[in-house]
Amino acid sequence: MIKFIKVLKIEDLPIGKSAIVLVEDQEIAVFNYKNEYFAVANKCPHKGGPLGEGRVQEGIVICPNHEWRFELKTGNSMQNPEMKCGVFPVRIKDEKIYVGFDQNKKKIYGKEASALPASLKFKIPTIQKPINPEEEL
Questions:
Q1: Considering the chain, what is the average pLDDT of its residues?
Q2: Does 136 have pLDDT greater than 70?
Q3: Measured between alpha carbons, how far is 1 from 113 in angstroms, rounded to an integer?
Q4: Fewest beta carbons within 10 Å, which of 11, 38, 69, 86?
């Protein structure tokens, strides 16, 4: 069952701003983009940057660390279709912002951030020791 948890008051998040909230030990970035509210996992799936500190352009949040871009509505990455950031349902009630929460899993409800696809994984050969023991690498 999905439960919506109050995270902010509308007055605390003006248009064009974001806030990072902690719900069940998970950081969630909440955005007010053109008076529409979005919630995404605060951790960028690329290198773990804080998406809540990024800027938003045309409905896309841009990670402040490496400029990776993710759609606020879907979590889809602009650079890599295999990568997604977690997105969470948002509701507004009585001038308050609520984020969807799955009570059974004790976890925020939404898309999971994707891991590196198996097709991109490869092995790097181990550097061998020098043939001459006095030689340095």
A1: 82
A2: no
A3: 21
A4: 11
Secondary structure in 3-state letters for 36-57: EEEEEECECCCCCCEHHHCEEE
Q: What are phi and psi of 51, to 5 degrees?
A: -60, -30
- Cα separation, 29 vs 23, in Å, equals 11
- State the amino acid at position 135 in one-letter form: E
Helices (H) and strands (E) in the chain, counts: 0, 11
Residues 6 or more apart whose Cβ sits within 8 Å of residue 6 = 96, 97, 98
According to DSSP, residue 80 is labeled -
Q: Which residue has the tokens 């609520």?
A: 98
Query: How far is residue 60's CA from residue 70's CA, in Å, rounded to a whole number?
Result: 5
CB environment 69-89: b (16+ within 10 A), e (fewer): bbbbeebbbeeeeebbbbbbe
Say what the pTM is: 0.74
Cα separation of 51 and 5, whole Å?
A: 21
Burial of 123 (0-12, 13-18, 19+ CB in 10 A): exposed
